[in-house]
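thread: overnight batch results

M.L. [08:02]
morning all. the overnight job finished for the chain we discussed friday. pasting input first so we're all looking at the same thing
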Amino acid sequence: MAVPEPTTAMLVVFAITAVALLSFVAEVVSPDVTALSVLVSLVVLEPWTTVGPATAISGFASAATVTIMAMYMLSEGVQRTGAVQWLGAVLARVTDGNERRVLAATVGTTGPLAGIVNNTPVVAVFIPMISDLAEESHLSPSKFLIPLSYAAMLGGTLTLIGTSTNIVASDLVATDLVPDHGPIGMFELTPLGVVVLLVGSVYLLTVAPRLLPERVPATLDVTDTYEVSDYLAQVRVRESSALVGQRVEDAFTSMDLDVDVLQLVRDEEVFIAPGSDRDIVAGDVLTVRANLQDVNRFAEAYDLRQLPREEVSGDSLSAPWIRGELLELVIPPESEFVGDTLAELRFRERYGGTVMAIRRGSRVTHERLDAFELSGGDSLLVYATSTAAELLADEDEVLVTRGPADETEKPALSPKTPVAVGILLTVIGLAAFTHFPIVVTALGGVVAMVVTGCLDIDDAYDAVSWNVIFLLAGILPLSAALQASGGADYLADLLVLLAEGADLLLVVGAFYVLTGLLANVITPVASVALLVPVAAQSANELGADPFSFVLAVTFAGSTAFMTPIGYQTNLMVYGPGGYRFTDYLRVGAPLQLLLAVVTTLGIGVLWPPG
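M.L. [08:03]
and the structure it wrote out:
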């Protein structure tokens, strides 16, 4: 067959798509901003794209967009009752420090749970539990955190609401892309999803441990994890020192050196800086964070006597009588802190905590921290008072993955827990066994969560990852433009020409591989939204069942294993696990290839393409 020449409209839409893909990969701006730029471009070029203002903003009213927003809220309602935290604590007790049992409990719990609760909060709750458990058991958290993320992603294939890509695909299927097929049913994906989860879990329990390095050494002291021992020292204030009579914070702000004062020790009392309003007196001992050269310059400039470099450990910083806490914070991908420096955030003044080190993957930074520009996935070691620790724990822009032990060891179930879980199960049941669509039952569940007091309305809005919502709302019109301009048909013709004479199941597998590769660099949601129309049209051109092709794209959207930026849970474990970019490729590529084969064969059995 001959492929016709592309029209001007197609070329314009292809150009917009190409620029969007390059922007996604290069991360010139955040993905949601790229998507909104696409939306605006489509309207500005309406004579060629045929996308007017009403079509451009239709993504905000899409059933997929509204459903995903509601599922974020429902998941938050369940999480706030303490159900997930309680489950994590139970697992910590039963595993008893055994590496295999810890890994099995992590994978075996996270996967099924992610099928009904949004996987992002599941991973957010399990990161501190896994990190603490690894520390207590003298195990490296690096052995468990990538499997945690992957298991959550695999669990998303179990149900329609397991992941946002399933919901997007369902919304597209409900159009005329797949004739005589309405939205994907709640458990329509479950038979193949169970196979995918089981195969992936076996891989994570047997092969992955051999491939995962111990990037973060097994240790009992968090200061060792962040390699800060060489950056901690103590100095005694002499009577002739210029610091005598100054408040700790005033002395700190007047210094040009890269030195942070963590503690003021006076006799048997320890005061945490910042936050101390006491004047420095002769004989006080200051615990500081700085490299050896800056400590020397600091001591010389202010006539201080350096004490022997006794080890300042995590225990000495956070002993119960000191009322100081060592916290590990992770910057989520959607945090407003991304792109800012600590100086711009006024972190120390704003939260009363001192950042001691910043980890980005396997690289730890100890110096000039105020000028460090934060990125999604960064983890920060922070020293703060107990009050400041509580303030940071309530901050929506950071995720506390290591905190006071008494806050995480015995989480209490709320009296609202049965109500919240019951509401979520009711939402799923109504969507599965009645004529009500998932968007209606999910919104009804949100109303029920708020009315019953399981979720405050402000918390409901805060629970939504608005960057995902805007990404989806901005990219759906591009999917529509590809169809309206004939671009999807043109690409389908090209693919059909390339696949001429090939077995239909091999073509299904090719779409799986293509989607999986794209999902690793341009986000799963964008990949599914762009490729579902092309896959469906290709199937029509080949005389195959378009639903089987759409399912290949849908399942592949949940397998962005090969990069930390492929999925937000991958990025969330990047810093706490101390991983390198290549670790995801080493562990994720074989898994992605394995699932490409398994899923393709599964589709061939359950939904034969022809």
